[in-house]
């Protein structure tokens, strides 16, 4: 799967082995809460991203369950201890079935 | 002040205050969570627990600039080793329509027990952050955040 054009990240290209790096990522997504109404006063159906994961060479770094209290265009930052060169993979799932993915190549020296 | 009158000035003021309280307690739609509901949601997430204070810190402003996009961080004091790490961080909002905002599941590979994101705040309220450590202990921080413009509705 190609990297989603809805995803923006800030992740270093290189790290020292064992170094703790910050991973910042933002997904363009309305995170429609189900609390809003459209111009005709009809409720807008809820559609939120309810799951997020980060893996490093397929090993879990962090994952999250999100609810309607998470802001639109969810931006997040967290940390990872660098194990080895390879791929950091970020994945977001929304409750309508869409999956957004981003893979970042990192060199660990 | 004639206390023989059917309603004294003080009585009128008290009645006014009482009706103001009654008005402010009129149910609003959508319903907001409260401390008891938040407690129940926390139990659904973590089972039976006795939360201790300390180790977990909410990084929030006293007053939110916007109820729609408020930065929130949770930092836990932990070595994040395989033997001693934070397994989960839960953020709950006592005054939002649904109290659970986010549950984060960490591993020793996370390196540092810290998460940052942005959240919606329906009104001035208390936020809670719980941290579950690998020994099964639950730690909690609770802080008030003032909101002038809520961010959940339309």
Automatic annotation (TrEMBL), chain A:
Pfam family, one: SoxZ
Domain Sulphur oxidation protein SoxZ span(s) in chain numbering: 10-101
Protein name per the record: Thiosulfate oxidation carrier complex protein SoxZ
UniProt organism field: Paramagnetospirillum marisnigri
Transmembrane segments: none
InterPro entries: Ig-like_fold, Ig_E-set, SoxZ, SoxZ_dom
């Amino acid at each position: 799967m190609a990297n989603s054009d809805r995803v923006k990240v800030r992740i270093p290209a290189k790290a020292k082995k064992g170094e703790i790096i910050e991973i910042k990522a933002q997904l363009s997504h309305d995170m429609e809460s189900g609390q809003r109404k459209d111009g005709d006063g009809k409720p807008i159906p809820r559609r939120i991203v309810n799951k997020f994961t980060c893996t490093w060479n397929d090993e879990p770094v962090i994952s999250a369950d999100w609810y309607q209290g998470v802001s639109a265009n969810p931006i997040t930052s967290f940390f990872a201890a660098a194990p080895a060169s390879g791929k950091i993979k970020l994945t977001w799932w929304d409750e309508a079935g869409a999956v957004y993915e981003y893979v970042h190549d990192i060199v660990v020296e | 002040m004639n206390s023989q009158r059917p309603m004294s000035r003080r009585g009128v003021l008290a009645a006014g205050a009482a009706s103001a309280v009654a008005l402010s307690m009129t149910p609003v739609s959508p319903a907001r969570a409260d401390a008891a509901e938040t407690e129940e949601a926390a139990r659904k997430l973590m089972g039976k627990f006795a939360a201790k204070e300390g180790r977990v810190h909410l990084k929030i402003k006293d007053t939110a600039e916007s109820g729609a996009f408020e930065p929130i961080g949770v930092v836990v004091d932990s070595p994040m080793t395989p033997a001693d790490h934070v397994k989960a961080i839960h953020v709950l909002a006592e005054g939002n329509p649904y109290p659970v905002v986010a549950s984060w599941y960490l591993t020793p590979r996370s390196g540092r027990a810290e998460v940052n994101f942005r959240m919606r705040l329906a009104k001035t309220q208390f936020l809670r952050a719980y941290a579950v450590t690998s020994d099964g202990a639950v730690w909690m921080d609770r802080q008030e955040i003032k909101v002038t413009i809520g961010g959940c509705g339309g």
